Task: structure prediction
Amino acid sequence: MTTTGTTLVIGATGTTGSRTAARLSASGHRVRAAARHAVDIAGAEPVTFDWYEPTTHAPALDGADRVYLIPPVGDADPAAVMLPFLRQAHTAGVHRAVLLSSSAIPAGGPAVGGVHRALPGLFEQWAVLRPSWFMQNFTGTHAHAVSIREEGAIWTAARSGRVGFVDAEDIAAVAVHALTDAHAPNTDLVLTGPETLSYDDVAATLTRFTGRPVNHHHLSYEVMRGRLAAHVPPEFASMLAGMDRAIAEGAEDRVTDTVQRLTGRPASSFRDFLERELEREKG
Result:
């Protein structure tokens, strides 16, 4: 790795943003931890940032030469707010940008796919992280985690489709590499864990690890879309339910070696992840 100036981490309270900011800071890099509300990360400078409040953009960018980009959550057209900011960032002296996208969304695809397509034209140094579904979706405040705790259930339209679930810690490790290595990736990086699992497999593994029964309920696309629309905008609900349908059709049944290739260590398995989470709860 090489010494960097200052990295602006947008979404520093989020699942990957918080981990990326913490790893950068712990490695001695200067970090500006940006979020709508103050974030406390050891060694990082907290700054206020809101995608929909342009007055927060210039102060957050002040002195930054790299940026880690978390798109606004639940926005079906994030390019509308992200592209003006990225042009401003380039003018302000940012020379490397790393964007969090999804394995399900290619360049030019829906939602953040438009930002992915534009990124190489804005920055000479760039990367797009395209992780598979997060293992952390089954813990914390994610909808799956809530339904697991409250109902002993996971609800999807993914049927028996398989997913290369990935640990957010591994995503953050790759993000740090992409932000600080002497040579920027200048490509998109599909990130997975070491194996593919169906939601039936996940439910069975959770049952074994927790001792509490967890079942996977198979829903139609239409029912899943309606369930999601109770919590997110209709366009975003349609997109998410469509991702489940793509899983059912085999779109996410793959593993990559990206985590090991870029970080030098194997990606965590789902069992590794659960063991770590259970130890954390005990501690």
Remarks:
- The chain has a mean pLDDT of 95.
- The longest helix spans residues 234-248.
- The CA atoms of residues 164 and 196 lie 4 Å apart.
